[in-house]
Amino acid sequence: MILFPAIDLKDGQCVRLKLGDMDQATVYNPDPAAQARAFEEQGFEWLHVVDLNGAFAGETVNGAAVDAILKATKNPVQLGGGIRTLEHIERWLGRGLKRVILGTVAVRNPALVIEACRKFPGRVAVGIDAKGGRVAVEGWAEASELGVIELARKFEGAGVAAIIYTDIDRDGILTGINWASTLELADAVTIPVIASGGLASMDDIRRMTAPDAWKLEGAISGRALYDGRIDPKEALALIREARKGMVR
After folding, report:
1. What angle do CA 9, 50, 228 make, to 5 degrees?
2. Closest by alpha carbon to 170, among 125, 133, 218?
3. Which class for 41: exposed (0-12), middle (13-18), buried (19 or more C-beta within 10 A)?
4. Contact criterion met (CB below 8 Å) for 224 and 5
5. In the 8-state DSSP scheme, what is residue 58?
6. Is the separation of the CB atoms in 215 and 186 below 8 Å?
7. Residues labelled as active-site residues
8. CA of 22: how far to CAs of 19, 53, 56, 195, in Å?
9. 47 touches 36 (CB < 8 A)
10. Quick one: which H or E segment has residue 10?
């Protein structure tokens, strides 16, 4: 059970979007490396990073900011946004990422995801972003006809490290994680699932530590951390207590 603090990168800055809209970006820190250090000092164990410009461009745009983050923290980092080829994957893993997150390419070219998992075992995650129950691609700009569980099941047995499931309809608006659909997905596949989109308060932290959510690898928090709606010390203490229950 891991709480992943999020750094979303737009034009080299640490921002949060509302409902995935690039025109509704709030800058929280102009120095993403400093933000990465702050999260480590607060006790977080992982870092979730998204290259928002890259997600739309189909290639890395905020590479310099990601490199600075990797130098600034000892925590493992997972990165999504614009990673579409084996060359992209190999380059980023070689630069110090713990794992890459493949989103659009998981829909467009699932065979590439399977090949990447074979070549880089344990270091490839799949990002499934959904709007109205359907998978969205190209930085959430396009909707596909694929259902969430339908896509996830394509990767059963392939060695995917985790599925990061984001409910776009809740992202950045602090309405709470869509626990029903997230847990439904976790029940439908054996791949670990990470909840994302809408984590709003300590109530969500308490919900993620409930026994029926122990099947999740964890959850991602962005705006609620930056706005102070979640107290890092209290949240991490709750998660530590939940972990004790898991191993009993």
Report:
1. 70
2. 133
3. exposed
4. no
5. T
6. yes
7. 8, 129
8. 9, 9, 10, 21
9. yes
10. strand 2-10
Nearest to 217 by CA among 139, 146, 125: 125
The identity of residue 13, as a single letter, is: Q
Three-class SS of residue 43?
A: coil
Amino acid, single-letter form, for residue 112: L
pLDDT tens for 136-184 read 765 445 566 678 999 999 999 999 999 999 887 655 556 688 899 999 9
How many residues does the structure list for the chain?
248
Stated as kind and residue range, the H or E segment containing 25 is strand 21-29
Q: Which two structure tokens, joined as six digits, stand for 23?
A: 């025109």
Which residue, among 148, 192, 191, 184, has the nearest Cα to 168 in the 3D structure? Answer: 148
Query: Pairing relation of β-strands 21-29 and 13-18?
Result: antiparallel
DSSP secondary structure letter of residue 32 = H
According to DSSP, the β-strands at 163-167 and 218-221 are: unpaired
Dist CA 201 CA 212 (whole Å): 19
Model pLDDT for residues 107-143, shown as the tens digit of each residue: 889 999 999 999 999 999 999 988 777 787 654 455 6
